[in-house]
Amino acid sequence: MSDTRRRVKVYTLNEDRQWDDRGTGHVSSTYVERLKGMSLLVRAESDGSLLLESKINPNTAYQKQQDTLIVWSEAENYDLALSFQEKAGCDEIWEKICQVQGKDPSVEVTQDLIESEEEHIEEMPETSPLIDLPTCELNKLEEIADLVTSVLSSPIRREKLALALENEGYIKKLLQLFQVCENLENTEGLHHLYEIIRGILFLNKATLFEVMFSDECIMDVVGCLEYDPSLAQPKRHREFLTKTAKFKEVIPITDSELRQKIHQTYRVQYIQDIILPTPSVFEENFLSTLTSFIFFNKVEIVSMLQEDEKFLSEVFAQLTDEATDDDKRCELVNFFKEFCAFSQTLQPQNRDAFFKTLAKLGILPALEIVMGMDDLQVRSAATDIFSYLVEFSPSMVREFVMQEAQQSDDDILLINVVIEQMICDTDPELGGAVQLMGLLRTLIDPENMLATANKTEKSEFLNFFYNHCMHVLTAPLLANTSEDKCEKDAVVGSAKSNTICPDNYQTAQLLALILELLTFCVEHHTYHIKNYIMNKDLLRRVLVLMNSKHTFLALCALRFMRRIIGLKDEFYNRYITKGNLFEPVINALLDNGTRYNLLNSAVIELFEFIRVEDIKSLIAHIVENFYNALESIEYVQTFKGLKTKYEQEKDRQNQKLNSVPSILRSNRFRRDARALEEDEEMWFNEDEEEEGEAVVPPVEKSKQEDDFPDSYEKFMETKKAKESEDKENLPKRTSAGGFKFTFSHSAGAANGANGANSKSVAAQTSPASSNGSSSKNATLTTAVTAAKGSLVGLVDYPDDEDDDEEEETSPRKRPRLGS
Fold first, then answer.
1. DSSP codes joined into one string, 134-185
2. Which of helix, strand or coil describes residue 41?
3. pLDDT tens for residues 162-197?
4. Reduced to 3 states, what is the DSSP secondary structure of residue 70?
5. Which of 21, 195, 363, 498 could bond to 145 as cystine, CB 3.0-4.6 Å?
6. Beta strand pairing status for 7-13 and 19-32?
């Protein structure tokens, strides 16, 4: 049975009054013939063996505790408990038990509890007298300890003992006995006192805590808890609290009540976290009141500090004062870190007020100064504070940095300081960088940006981020994939260049983090990141990392490309085909050989996605340029499937064309080409102007993206017309990406007249190049021409073939562009 509602742990109480785990299984209630009654059965989830078979006895007292526990006594000294994974399952079984016993399921206990005879303590109605406590004397300590531990299993008796302890001022008397025992070195008595004080804590009563944690009592309570009978030597908790733990006042606290609260909270937290053993499954709620006690103390401390504006102003003044020495500043930052941590205990509306107070006092400018400091500890604490602020209100942080941008240089903007910290993290595992990357992602996530009536935070902030910060974020990526780095070690004729410094593990990890953030941008930022990728030719640079010896980095680069292709955006698709950007991916696949690993699967998934989604322009590009290299891969049908899709599309286009009279076809074809030629080039103008003359005059940038024709047919017709004209004057994009095109298998695509012509064109268009770069131009131009020339085959216009050849060989036709 896999139903988690019925999943339980079975416990039995051993002689030492400790619960033993008997195993985990699934519980059911069924009629058992042998036991002649409804019974609880638990079968082990591991092997189905029977962990428990217990008849629901009409007279047994079953107790439901903490919503997920059912406890009962099977025999005089045999206590059982079922701990349910889910409350619903506990309620279900509880109803069955109550049904058998004829009780209302709303009760917590099915029978009146009758305590054993020896104790002579009977359960009575609420008006019954309290528990009689033995007199507080040394020789009665054992009796007191037994009494305290025996009541813990009964909620009613716990209440009564708590009342008795409160009314008689019993705790203070016990603590006096502790001092006597310690002076006499009475170890047995001290062990009993440990049991007593621990038991009293487990009574879970706030009124008793008030007494135990008061200034006069708390150290003696800690003293009692040092003498755990299971330890050979007592612990030295009091010595730690009085001598080792130092209370640092960054600014003197004048309010004595506040000081007392801070001391008390620290000590009680110490008792809970250090002294008391980790609670078992049954004790978790025994200390719920202790947790609440600490919680409310923290709320009070935060509120009192927050109201004391003079104190906070002084802290801020010293934090930002250049004269403050480093040790003092470190203490101030740690104080704020703890202050923010305490604030998490506040209710939402109070937390709002808290962070607004900090913002008003200038927490963000202060953090900006502190995060840029050399001290690692200070920077780490400042990062934690920053994370609290970002978590609380990303909008508040965004608003601050945008205002700041109007007054200061890019270098000292808060977000750029954060990015610098991320890039310069000295930790080999980049722990801090990972945390900062998470915060940056929150800040640039459009999901948490507000759109108000008068302004949209999203467009404003993203404009700011891409103008002022993006170059800082991508700097390490661009530096490590720059052309000179890539060509320094590239071996001519080999598909793999032994490049890049990301062979250094720490740098590789950093680049992986940056790529993760950029991949997030591709998914969420649409046109901002699209402009950035196109203008910087970013994908080409990223794909250089496919050569890294660190597979995780190669996979990050591949994931970036996969996200771009996943958008199915025709602008991106044209950018990829025009730049021949599948080549590094296919190189990586072929270099990976027959190894069946994550890289292999990820590359194949990329091509499978293109096939399933039928992205026609990419299918055509892959098949025409790389099919020769890929057709040998037969352990998946992906590449054959791509070829089939390509051929089907080609046939479909041919049929379409054959059904149109030739005169109409050529006229329509010419007209569309002219109408759309400028749109075709729009996204690439800026790029080509940088590196050579633009093929067409620049067009206005404000054109809408949706001018691009969605119809595949129209797209391919335009492509055909444009390619036939472009053959004369290919864009001189020789080394923008710094990736050497040496893919041996693409030669087939550039065979024949096409290849020969393009080489001669390359020679004409780059007479000024020197130092062997002309051969590189030729190689690149061949590859680009091969890609372009091959695309023509997608739409086969029989009537225009002669035209094409004429245009390629006759430069005189070029002036048509101006007409």
1. PPS-GGGHHHHHHHHHHHTT-HHHHHHHHHHHHHTTHHHHHHHHHHHHHHHT
2. strand
3. 888 888 788 999 999 999 999 999 999 999 999 999
4. strand
5. 195
6. antiparallel
Any long-range contacts for 771-774 (C-beta under 8 Å, 24+ apart)? 773/734, 773/735
Q: Nearest 10 degrees: CA dihedral of 15, 18, 22, 27?
A: 110
Using only the alpha carbons of the chain, give its radius of gyration: 38
Instruction: Give me the numbers of helices (H) and strands (E) for the chain, helices first please.
Output: 36, 7
CB 657 within 8 A of CB 796: yes
Coil, strand or helix: which one is 455? coil
What is the distance between the alpha carbons of residues 508 and 501, in angstroms, rounded to a whole number? 8
Among 396-400, 426-430, 498-502, the range with the most confident prediction by mean pLDDT is 396-400
3-state percent helix, strand, coil for the chain, nearest multiple of 5:
65, 5, 30
C-alpha to C-alpha distance for 726 and 754, rounded to whole angstroms: 13
Q: pTM to 2 decimals?
A: 0.59
DSSP string, 351-409: HHHHHHHHHHHTHHHHHHHHHTSS-HHHHHHHHHHHHHHHHH-HHHHHHHHHHHHTTS-
DSSP label of 279:
P
State how far the alpha carbon of 708 is from the alpha carbons of 49, 675, 676, 788, in Å: 68, 11, 8, 19
Q: What is the pLDDT of residue 779?
A: 42
User: Taking the CA of residue 656 as centre, how many other CA atoms within 13 Å lie in the half-sphere pointing to its CB?
Assistant: 16
CA distance linking residue 526 with residue 511, whole number of Å: 22
- CA separation for the pair 265, 296 (Å, rounded): 10
CB neighbours of 374 closer than 8 A, spacing ≥ 6?
Answer: none
H or E stretch including 100? helix 87-101
Top-confidence residue, 771 or 95: 95
- Integer Cα distance of 251 and 178 in angstroms: 37
Q: What is the mean pLDDT of residues 448-463?
A: 76
pLDDT single digits (tens) 49-78? 888 888 888 888 888 887 788 888 886 667
pLDDT (0 to 100) of residue 495:
40
- Count of other CB atoms within 10 angstroms of residue 54: 17
Q: 47 or 586: whose pLDDT is higher?
A: 586
For 697-705, the CB contacts below 8 A with 24+ separation are: 703/679, 705/527, 705/571
CA 106 remoteness from chain centre: 42
User: What 3-state DSSP class applies to 793?
Assistant: coil
